[in-house]
Amino acid sequence: MVTPDLLTNIANSAGLAVTLESAAAALDGIDQGAILAEEQQALTWELWDKQSPINGVPAEQLLARDDVPPGGAIYLIREKATGNVLYFQPHLPGAAGIVAMDEATASTEAGSHVQAVAQTRADQRVLQEALRKLGLA
Fold it and tell me: pTM value?
């Protein structure tokens, strides 16, 4: 969620003079919850079957990558509108090294990952709209 403090810090670090009051006013009327909901609806995840090509890349080529542990589950995050894969996650995110995931872990991680991506995308939209309202974008 974009707060007035965050908007002010981002704008000021980019050399734009924005006060806390003007940031709050710019954010007023932007329905951040609705934007987040739109972004959540725009994404989906699935466990990969390890046979289907991804964005035109053959499965064999993807499975030959150095970061694909043998036997582990792999999840994909897709853009619903296009079906394009945005994320191919073959190992446990954030783990030291390349750690395989079982299907239950991959499912849990995929759901969390989708939420994080949706939040990031929503925040970017909110920031752009707020900067536009401030006459800075």
Answer: 0.90
